[in-house]
Amino acid sequence: MTDRVNPEVRRVADDIDTMEIRGAATIADAAARALRVQALESDASDPATLRADLRAAARTLVETRPTAVSLPNALRYVLRGATGQTVEEIHENVEATATEFCARLDRAQSDLGQVGANRLRDGDIIMTHCHSTDALACVEAAVEQGKHIEAIVKETRPRNQGHITARELHEMGVPVTLIVDSAARRYLNDVDHVLVGADAVAADGSVINKIGTSGLAVNARDRGTPIMVAAQTLKLHPGTMTGHTVDIEMRDTDEVIDEETLAELGSPTVRNPAFDVTPPRYVDAIVTERGQFPPESIVMLMRELFGEHTTEPWVEPA
């Protein structure tokens, strides 16, 4: 059978898989735009074939990052706009829906930043983990309000995403102290807020984020340091009641160790989970573009936004 998935869709899927495209909002934006390309450049001659092409493209994209819920949420949004009685109508509706989705993404992060900035005071020191554009939006908004913010940034091994955070905070004019991951507890006494992002938020308020977030949250609670999670509503996971039911992505071992060194160590088994689950009892507030919420209230927000959970639209109809 001829492969009808557009090459641009496959390129975007590869870039998401290899983390050339990273960050939940960036992934969602790229996925929505890729589906728009699939629709507009499809040579399907009838609506059924065009919808099948769109589902195939969505499956190609959704398989790249099983934990980042912003990806299926973006695909779900665009595919449910693929309505119309003719190929031309579907083209127009998908283009309009994808364009609207990307515009909402732009506004959402700005609105979230304003909400999060209200929790930050002039002179606060924050600690970050990994790289989150939502978390950085809160800091940027606080700086624009004239507040002086300083940051202690964890490197976030093995891919050192904290280096990206350090660079972007520096560009905002925020003084940065970069620390190794294992030094986090040592510096928590100096911190006013732990500020992290999320790849997904479960209905019970559990937070799925870069591996190491859960341990940081436990240490922060022991130290009495509040932990704030910045997450657009795009990252809410309506299909799971607890974070422990989310599929945790396992990354390649070569991110951790090269083959030669591995052999020198006697070829031990290497595990490289990309994410962990932080229970809601360790989270003080989840900040979204809709406002800030205690973790136990997230389920109500999900019901308001998503209603009842339904079959994923990229699944082939029976």
UniProtKB/TrEMBL annotation:
Catalytic reaction list: alpha-D-ribose 1,5-bisphosphate = D-ribulose 1,5-bisphosphate
Keyword Transit peptide among record annotations: no
Matches recorded under Gene3D superfamilies: translation initiation factor eif-2b, domain 1, Translation initiation factor eif-2b, domain 2
InterPro entries: IF-2B-related, IF_2B-like_C, Initiation_fac_2B_a/b/d, M1Pi_N, NagB/RpiA_transferase-like, R15Pi
Keywords for this protein: Carbohydrate metabolism, Isomerase
UniProt-listed GO biological process terms: pentose catabolic process
E.C. no: 5.3.1.29
Active-site residue list: C130 (proton acceptor), D199 (proton donor)
Pfam families: IF-2B (PF01008)
Gene Ontology MF annotations: ribose 1,5-bisphosphate isomerase activity
Residues binding substrate: R22, G23, A24, A25, R65, N209, K210, K235
PANTHER family given in the database record: METHYLTHIORIBOSE-1-PHOSPHATE ISOMERASE, RIBOSE 1,5-BISPHOSPHATE ISOMERASE
NCBIfam families, per database record: eIF-2B_rel, ribulose_e2b2
Function as written in the Swiss-Prot or TrEMBL entry: Catalyzes the isomerization of ribose 1,5-bisphosphate (R15P) to ribulose 1,5-bisphosphate (RuBP).
HAMAP family, per the entry: R15P_isomerase
UniProt similarity note: Belongs to the eIF-2B alpha/beta/delta subunits family. R15P isomerase subfamily.
Note: Reaction proceeds via a cis-phosphoenolate intermediate.
Protein name: Ribose 1,5-bisphosphate isomerase
Organism: Haloferax namakaokahaiae
Species classification: Archaea, Methanobacteriati, Methanobacteriota, Stenosarchaea group, Halobacteria
